[in-house]
Amino acid sequence: MKKMKLVMVGNGMAGVRTLEELLKLTPDLYDITVFGAEPYPNYNRIMLSPVLAGEQGIQDIILNDIDWYKQNNITLHLNKKVVRINRKSKVVVAEDGREAEYDRLLLATGSSSFILPVPGKELAGVVGYRDIQDTNAMIVAAEKYKHAVVIGGGLLGLEAANGLALRGMDVTVVHLMPWLMERQLDDNSAQMLQSALEAKGLKFMLEQQTQELVDDGHGRVKSIRFKDGSEIPADLVVMAVGIRPNVALAESAGVYCNRGIVVSDTMQTYDPSIYAVGECVSHRGIAYGLVAPLFDMAKVCANHLARMGIAYYQGSVTSTKLKVTGVDLFSAGNFTGGKETNEIVMHDVTSGRYKKLVLNNNTLIGAVMYGDTKDSSWYFQMIRDGKNVAEIRDQLIFGQSHLGNAGSQGQNLAATMTNAMEVCGCNGVCKGTIVKAIKEKGLFTLEDVRKHTKASASCGSCTGLVEQILASTVGGAYAPPATTVKPLCDCTSHSHEEVRKAIREEKLISILQTMIFLNWNTTNGCAKCRPALNFYLLCAWPHEAKDDPQSRFINERANANIQKDGTFSVVPRMYGGITTPQQLRRIADVAEKYNIPTVKVTGGQRIDLLGVKKTDLPKVWADLDMPSGYAYGKALRTVKTCVGSEWCRFGVQDSTQMGIDIERAFDHMWMPHKFKVAVSGCPRNCAESGIKDVGIIGVESGWEIYVAGNGGIKTVVAQFLVKVKTHDEVMEYTGAFAQLYREEAHYLDRTVHYVERVGLDHVKKHVVENAANRKALYARLLYALQGATNPWSKENINAREFESLEI
Amino acid sequence: MNTWHEVTTLEEIPPLGARVVTTKQGDIALFRTADGEVFALLDRCPHKGGHLSQGIVFGKKVACPLHSWNICLDDGKAVAPDVGCTRSYPVKVENNVVYLSLA
Questions:
Q1: What domain range is A575 assigned to?
Q2: CB of A45 within 8 A of CB of A444?
Q3: The complex's ipTM?
Q4: Nearest CA in chain A to B15
Q5: DSSP track, A539-559
Q6: Are B56 and A562 inside 8 Å of each other by CB?
Q7: CA distance A445 to A451
Q8: What is the mean pLDDT of each run of 10 residues along chain B (103 residues)?
């Protein structure tokens, strides 16, 4: 079959990203031709500032070299501006007369600097700041001349000014408004920014309007004159007052434009054969200039060009970051406020920190941060989700991570860290490595950085720092990862919620069935989605969905915990932490018989046998004759107890028995993640109930139940859920909370993440306030657990899993 | 010429699963894809030596159980951006019998 022809006009980041996404989906659907007006292949426009500042060369910022086009059989025309589109005969024509036919046309013509219509704007030495040519002109000027003036105190203008200053020029920034970056900053933060930049040697003239650029008599600019008559010398004038979408080509072909090429949610223009992406488009009346939205568009456009037809672009909420070394700032939403809003402000001039949060009732609607921007994506997410923050309002200004985040030396200001300092304590990644990877590999998202450097890819406690580093390196191009409709994994565009809903409502009972129904784009998923689907199916359809061992992580397949050398660890249950001399004797005998190298007492009041060979596991279990402790599973782990009223002179409740009863009742319970419980017999809380998924504390008059605590990566104190009187009530409330978490949490979210997402009020509504609902939840849990048996018992062992073959 | 060793039958390897073969050259992992294709790799992840036979198999890849590197079953190469390669061995299936060559 003859291939269709796809022609792309414009060779920039949005367009080429579209081609990359398209080639991923269907590598062979089109013969592709690309026209680029510039002499370079696709480069990273965001990195023009480091090039200007002399930190990087042009070669370093090339994203797709010429070979990439060759390898993908793309015909590339560089230095060829397309001047005409003939929509009737479906042909584009370049300046030099070269023509190309198309079946589909993709316009990615980008934008240009807006040049102020003042006298002298055409003089030599007056440039915009948009491409390599502008940047080169500025670099050349910096070698010959002294005085530079940047018109425009916005994001781009300040980056240009900083670069020119680093190249040794005397730079003045002229700005029409009373403070810098007025669309992104309030007066306080702008003042702090200005002081920081003045300390770097930049000069500022605010509330100045340009009247004229003055000729030196040889056609070059020599000074700039303002409305008030004053004048300063200027050998180079950089116009950074805004950008305009390049629509002339589209308009001349009769494609409808209105401050950009108008596209629908499928990135289609008014001509169904013509698509458009990037800074040249107007989508729902908005033209975007940041990279993250452009990449979202690219994904959607590729989906339609590939004839899959299921993606929609619905606009993006954007935020701002500046990439001037040593300055961290962030803003998003409505940060100026109004009559109905109020503000929470923290301002410390000496330490250079400023935070302002704008709230409407109890919803965060805007934020500005200067200095410490570690929590910016946390705030950004709340702004986008419109989350009610009443519960955490008094803590809000201190950010998400003011409580014990381990692993990065307590650092929270990425800008003050040296390149040699370690950011990710799990994988040993320092700041310099991250910065280098971002610059050299052209990374834009947190996910990219995780893939390439492994920073923040393990426990995630350094995510805030990594985001800060990413933001200060790529600046305005950075947008925190989308959180509202995050797909479950790369195999699907559906979110966790959508998948769970389909499983429930369509009664899907196998992984394959689910993947087919939801149009998975892989035939058997990946290591991320299969375990999630397996759990979702078992949770929604107990006794009907069939467990798929091949979709479980090895630990749950082997019912033991894999160690770095491939051996396993075995932790038998000791209900409530109570054991007997007989059990201890058996454990000792097993350890000797199978040469188990390490026997360790765990933090959960049990005994861990480490270094067991996989082939020995069934024999070890048989000899132990104790049930599995699920220390390897996304399941109920331990129920930690203190000795309680049976022995302790302070104890007011029998916490040990309560712990044993809970551990027995909820044994074999698969969960989205591990689930830890503790029961203390008095408020002295010796079982550490405050940092457990469910923490129970006995008091004279009954029991207090706390939920969603965490003692791991992020130390979070459990929140009070309810106080009850009887033993049976403790069982019912605990079970109902566990079931709610099972039914609603995303796979691999701990209770702390789940409750943070849905809010404690939501949990109270379902578990505390609505008795019928609580009983129904509890009943569903008990039904799911009916008939569950010890996975270590002989009839449950799949011998093939543990035997090896030989030749 | 490959010297083929008879190892097992296809049914003994679970679909989307693996078996370990102990040999003089060390442990070798035999993988079976959903379509019944069989591949053999040295049972060591190029990253930190994780036992690939214990990983989750999907498509023609396996995710190492230690740190989730994805390794291609056909050539033993790590999926980008990770870099590394583990040794692969010739394997064939005839009349449901799986043969492995240590060449």
A1: 553-628
A2: no
A3: 0.95
A4: A550
A5: HHSTTTSPP-GGGS-HHHHHT
A6: no
A7: 10
A8: 89 95 94 95 94 96 94 94 93 95 86
Alpha helix (H) residue ranges in A386-430: none
Hey, are the CB atoms on B59 and A524 less than 8 Å from each other?
yes
The distance of A454 to chain B (nearest Cα, Å) reads 10
**B chain contacts of residue A450, beta-carbon cutoff 8 Å:** none
Backbone region of residue A310 per phi and psi (left: phi > 0; alpha: psi in -120 to 50; beta: other values): alpha
A82 — alpha (psi -120 to 50), left (phi > 0) or beta?
Answer: beta
pTM of the model: 0.75
Q: Which of B4, B11, B16, B71 to mutate to test the interface with A (most CBs of A within 10 A)?
A: B16
Q: Is A119 inside any structural domain?
A: no
Fold of B4-98: Rieske Iron-sulfur Protein (2.102.10)
A536 and A559, same domain (yes or no):
no
- Beta strand A82-86 pairing with A694-699: unpaired
Q: Please, which residues bridge with residue A91 across strands?
A: A86, A101
| pLDDT bucket at A404, cuts 50 / 70 / 90 | very low
Interface check for B29 against chain A (CB to CB < 8 A): the answer is no
Mean pLDDT confidence for A142-157: 93
Task: Note the pLDDT of residue A412.
Answer: 58
The whole-number pLDDT of residue A484 equals 53
Helical H runs in A34-186?
48-52, 66-71, 132-144, 155-166
The answer to whether position A579 is within a domain reads: yes
B51 near A CB under 8 A: yes
CA distance B16 to chain A (A): 6
Mutate to test the interface with B, among A547, A551, A555, A807 (most CBs of B within 10 A): A807
Cα(A57)–Cα(A306) distance, integer angstroms: 36
HEC string of A442-489 equals CCCCHHHHHHHHCCCCCCCCCHHHHHHHHHHHHHHHCCCCCCCCCECC
As a whole number of angstroms, the distance between CA A388 and CA B79 comes to 42
B64 touches chain A (CB under 8 A): no
Pair A428, A563 in one domain: no
In angstroms, the CA A710 to CA A704 distance is 17
pLDDT of A407 strictly over 60: no
Over chain A, what is the mean pLDDT?
90
Q: What is the pLDDT of residues A271-287, one digit of tens each?
A: 999 999 999 999 998 88
Cα dihedral sign, A314-A319-A324-A325: negative
Contact between B54 and A554 using a beta-carbon 8 Å cutoff: yes
Q: Is B68 on the interface with A (CB under 8 A)?
A: yes
- By Cβ distance, the residue of A452, A531, A562 closest to B65 is A562
pLDDT, mean of residues A583-592: 97
Q: How confident is the model at residue A421 (pLDDT cuts 50, 70, 90)?
A: confident
What whole-number distance in Å separates Cα of residue B70 and Cα of residue B60? 10
Q: How many structural domains are present in chain A?
A: 6
> What pLDDT is recorded for position A475?
66
Residue A572 has pLDDT above 80, yes or no: yes
Looking at the fold, whether A398 and A261 belong to one and the same domain comes out as no
**Which residue from A550, A562, A805 is facing B16, i.e. has the nearest CB?**
A550
B-chain CB neighbours of A565 within 8 Å are 49
**CATH label of the domain that carries residue A441:** 3.30.390.30
Q: Which of A512, A515, A550 to mutate to test the interface with B (most CBs of B within 10 A)?
A: A550
Output A695 or A483, whichever has higher pLDDT: A695
The rounded distance, in Å, linking the Cα atoms of A587 and A50 is 62
Measured CA to CA, the distance from residue A85 to residue A83 in angstroms comes to 7
Q: A333 and A408 share a domain?
A: yes
Which CATH number do you get for residue A131? Answer: 3.50.50.60
**Length of chain A measured in residues:** 807
Residue A607 DSSP code: E
The answer to whether residue A756 sits within a structural domain is yes
